[in-house]
Amino acid sequence: MSEVVLKITDLNAHYGHIHALRGISLEVRAGQIVTLLGANGAGKSTTMKCISGLLKPTGGKIEFMGESIFGAAPHDIVKQGLIHVPEGRRIFKGMTIQENLELGSFTLKDDAERKRRMDYVYELFPVLGERRHRDSGMLSGGEQQMLAMGRALMVGQKLVLLDEPSMGLAPFLVKNIMKVVKKLNEEGITILLVEQNAKMALGVADYGYVVETGEIVMHDGAQVLKSDERIINAYLGE
């Protein structure tokens, strides 16, 4: 069995007096795609923010590659190879595609390695290469999502957190983004995926956790969850 890359134990988080996460526990093993499923407001994005250091949890443990990152600063977590592609893309508008990618490689000292990674991103997303000198604010939603993912790949990542990569995209673009997610995983990148489109997420994932009101209520292999009547009725609309 592959090593555990990320282990979360009894994670709690608050927004003021609101208890947003109530004892979340999960793990992600090397080479897996693990998905978090749940309705809006269930706690999926909050879990991601706690992992990447954007939100300070109020209790529990977060271990990455066997070391605690609980409460660590986001830039220190990035340096360890844990990369967060946030909901809503959050690209740097007013800067070109290439400048966005260069910013993504801020931890790199090796210019040759930076060029190799940029070439890889442009190979993965040819449209970004064709428009590399265009202001990123002029890109379509799908192209912005490609750029957000590409920027994450500029870092030496051991784990990528993908938060709602298909949000607001046309169905054919969603399929393209999920193909890229699968391709990245096949090339050895471990992924924790939050996705409203449960059917699409379970189609690419190895394992899934279902979050309701800040708690994990179910978890199993993706194929098992796809055939579970509770999941079908609640999330798959079949």
Radius of gyration: 17 Å
CATH superfamily: P-loop containing nucleotide triphosphate hydrolases
**What is the string of SSEs from the N terminus onward?**
EEEHEEHEHHHHEHEHEEHH
Give the uncertain stretches in residue-range form.
none
Give the oligomeric state of the chains in this entry, treating copies of one chain as homo and distinct chains as hetero.
Answer: single chain
Question: Structural class, from helix and strand content?
Answer: alpha/beta
The proportion of residues in beta strands is 25-35%
- Please describe the biggest sheet, giving its number of strands, its sense, and whether it closes into a barrel: 6 strands, mixed
The assigned CATH architecture is 3-Layer(aba) Sandwich
Structure annotation, total helices: 10
Which class in CATH terms?
Alpha Beta
Average residue-wise pLDDT: 90
Q: Can you walk through the features of this model?
A:
- By secondary structure, this protein is an alpha/beta fold.
- It has one domain: P-loop containing nucleotide triphosphate hydrolases (Rossmann fold).
- The protein has ten helices and ten strands.
- The model has no long low-confidence stretch (mean pLDDT 90).
Provide the descriptors you would attach to this structure in a database record.
10 helices; globular; Rossmann fold; 238 residues; alpha/beta; four-stranded antiparallel β-sheet; 27% strand; 38% helix
